[in-house]
Amino acid sequence: MEFALLFSGEYDSANVFLSIHAGTGGVDAQDWAEMLERMYLRFAEKNNWTTEILERNLGNEAGIKNTLIKIVGRYAYGYLKSEAGVHRLVRISPFDAESLRQTSFALVEVLPELENDNKIEIKPEEIELEFHRSGGPGGQNVNKVSSAVRIKHLPTGIVVSCQSERSQSQNREAAMSLLKAKLLVLRLAEQDSRTALIKGDVQKAEWGRQIRSYVLQPYQMVKDHRTEYETSDTAGVLAGGIDKFIEAYLKTQV
């Protein structure tokens, strides 16, 4: 009964598009974005979910500028919707010659994958397609064939892209699915405040807007500012142990 109550949302059983964007903090923020990417991939692995990186842009010196991951698993969105928002890291910077303490930010966006959802209709004349070569390291096809897909929805200006090592048609299908998810959020925002249940408030990855803080120096603590749940096991959390944070958040939504 408790499970049914916690996961009673309309899209809770759906798969997930999870994106991470480096925010304020320069190279440290890009490194932090990559740390978060690893955390969510390990959390998915612990739950026996399958993951696929649809797009990934490397940082100039280290880390990543942004990444888009598709996570397929039972109630993936129901679990991961709690992660949407700004995540803050405090540590001694490994990129600072003077070893000064650095605060970095990254934005996490979580969207449900819509399957056979007739609520969102996209007409061919409403989109602008662009095909290009995938960036970054790759295999036989990547960087040689224009398999990466970029779609712009003309009425709203929303832009999505996908550049995994798959075919152009598969990339287009994934990008269209992501576009539908973003259009759903936009529609709900226009209708009523239900958008907060899907994606959370639109936020900038900067000081004062974080939902969770990860402090590695001068002490060890991860604290969620919405639920006040905290732990000193920072290594365990960054290794994918975020179950208690998710549970605490879901209980506040009942």
Which CATH class of the largest domain applies here? Answer: Alpha Beta
Tell me roughly what share of residues is in helical segments: 25-40%
Largest sheet: 8 strands, mixed
Strand order within the widest beta sheet: 2-3-1-5-4-9-10-11
CATH topology of the largest domain: Alpha-Beta Plaits
Number of domains: 2
How is the secondary structure organized here?
Elements: H1 2-6, E1 16-22, H2 26-46, E2 50-58, E3 64-72, H3 76-80, E4 85-92, E5 101-112, E6 127-132, E7 148-153, E8 158-162, H4 168-191, H5 195-198, E9 210-215, E10 221-224, E11 230-231, H6 234-238, H7 243-252
Any overview of this molecule?
With 254 residues, this protein is α+β, with helices and mostly antiparallel strands. It has 2 domains: 2-116 and 196-252, Alpha-Beta Plaits (2-Layer Sandwich); 124-191, Double Stranded RNA Binding Domain. The chain is built from 7 helices and 11 strands. It has helices at 2-6, 26-46, 76-80, 168-191, 195-198, 234-238, 243-252; strands spanning 16-22, 50-58, 64-72, 85-92, 101-112, 127-132, 148-153, 158-162, 210-215, 221-224, 230-231. It has an 8-stranded mixed beta sheet with strand order 2-3-1-5-4-9-10-11, with helices on both faces. Strands 6-7-8 form a 3-stranded antiparallel beta sheet, with helices on one face. A hairpin with a 5-residue loop joins strand 9 and strand 10 (221-224). It is globular.
